[in-house]
Design brief:
The chain has three helices and 14 strands. The protein is mainly β and 181 residues long. β11 and β12 form a beta hairpin.
């Protein structure tokens, strides 16, 4: 198993992609490209003589099926390479072309415990306080009203349209959408 750690900088430079990091790992054949993939990698070993398939990437213990160039190289803490028997014994047929294990840096825990307090106001209080423009739909998916809630009286929302109060019972509302300004 080849391993490279620490990965942040080598020769005073910072890595721009995962493939640049992998280029410094022994036992890998890495090709850098200028396209959106960023490059390709093949693990050299007995299995790669006749097999030029990409290796299996495992990030923080989970098989990674996304685009490996999407991982920020500044988030990488360590990289390990499994090849030949080690990769197939650990990951079966999926690891036949080798496995690249990437461990990312762990975030710092909270220094304080989160505090939860109860909130007894109406769900519409936020919209009233922030004068949020809304589109209110009824049970048949028709628009009941568009505008800003002026106030709430018991289970009725009061809007102002053309200088008149429009009352909408909360029980008649199916959904509410915020209108982008």
């Amino acid at each position: 198993m080849a391993q490279l750690k620490p990965l942040q900088t080598i020769k005073g430079t910072t890595y721009r992609s995962i493939f640049e990091i992998l280029r410094d790992v022994p036992g890998l054949e890495v090709k850098l490209t200028n396209d959106k993939t960023g490059g390709s990698v093949v693990i050299r070993g007995i299995g790669s003589l006749n097999n030029q398939k990409p290796p299996l990437f495992v990030v923080d213990g989970v098989i990674y099926s996304g685009d490996i160039s999407g991982i920020n190289p500044q988030d990488v803490d360590a990289i390990s390479v499994l090849k030949d028997a080690a990769s197939t014994s650990a990951y079966g047929a999926q690891g036949a072309s080798g496995v690249i294990l990437i461990t990312t840096k762990k975030g710092q825990g909270l220094s304080k415990q989160a505090v939860v307090s109860s909130y007894n106001a109406s769900a519409y209080t936020y919209f009233i306080e922030h004068k949020t423009p809304l589109k209110v739909y009824g049970h048949n998916d028709s628009v009941l009203i568009e505008g800003v809630i002026q106030k709430q009286q018991d289970s009725v929302l009061i809007f102002i349209k053309k200088r008149k109060e429009v009352r909408v019972a909360v029980k008649d509302i199916k959904r509410v959408e915020m209108i982008r300004e």
